[in-house]
Amino acid sequence: MQIAPVATAHTEAITTATTPITTPTNARTTTVERVAEIDLGGERHGSQTNWAVRWLRAGLPAYLKFLPLFAIVAAAVALAAPVHADPDVDFANELHTYGIYGQKDYNAWIGKIACKRLYSGVDQDAYKSAAFVNMQLQKGSTTEQSWQFLGAALRTYCPDKMPVLEAAAR
Amino acid sequence: MFVKSSFAIAALSVAATLFPAVASADASDDYPIPNRILKTTCTVDQYMAAVRDTDPVYYERYMIDYNNRPPDIQQGARDRIYWFFSLDYAGRRQYSEDTATNVYYEQMATHWGNWAKLFFNNKGVAARTTDVCAGYPPSDPSVWNW
Please, where are the H alpha helices in chain A? Predict the structure, then answer.
């Protein structure tokens, strides 16, 4: 259903793109020439810029000229996601290994707030933190799960507070 | 047995029609401000410390909103809620009715719509929190620094 309008858009693009190239007085062609002059004048033959300029001058339709650009953008979008993993997801996955489920965002909040409470001094030690966490977990959660939650939270969101946990272990 | 219990039910329903005022409370007893807030003897600081511990996400979100307000609005919200908590039950209930019947009654709300969200908007939070708020120090300015 979408094919028809897209096809017309392409044909329009081709016609508008081909017309200026055949008429040298057109502003669009002048712009390309000017870019070419600037780049070629800088003694940078064979550089990426000149390759790009030659590509742009190749008399291709407009939508083909920018294909490499689209390819780069598409690749960036496709590759970016796995590189920057969400710490909340890792945190939730770790909680699952302890049998702690529930909303990912809620658990992330509790983890971050547990850190904040340690920074602000509302909780002075890991025992207070664990008690706080225990209150926020589902009813029936064990003390062990509270400590596991706290350990995961400190590791994920405030590793510099890990000594608090180690102090409690002694 | 069946007859006896039907009599008892009939008697109860008669009583219910005769003395409706005894058990009934009108909507303003719990709306828009939860009944627990109208009745609590806790201070603002006690209440806020209790929310911080029992409903931390609710508290966090309110404080984010609070911290995004200009200082004069923050000051206004603090003054207003301390003023509200200084009222007795009758005064608080009257205020509740005034805000319910006149949308322009609470001027603070024209500057910050959710200025009292932590206190007035959630019966569950009010119930859980007023259960434990008496155990906190009556004056603790740190509850506003989050």
Answer: 3-22, 27-41, 48-57, 62-65, 67-83, 87-97, 104-120, 126-136, 143-157, 162-169
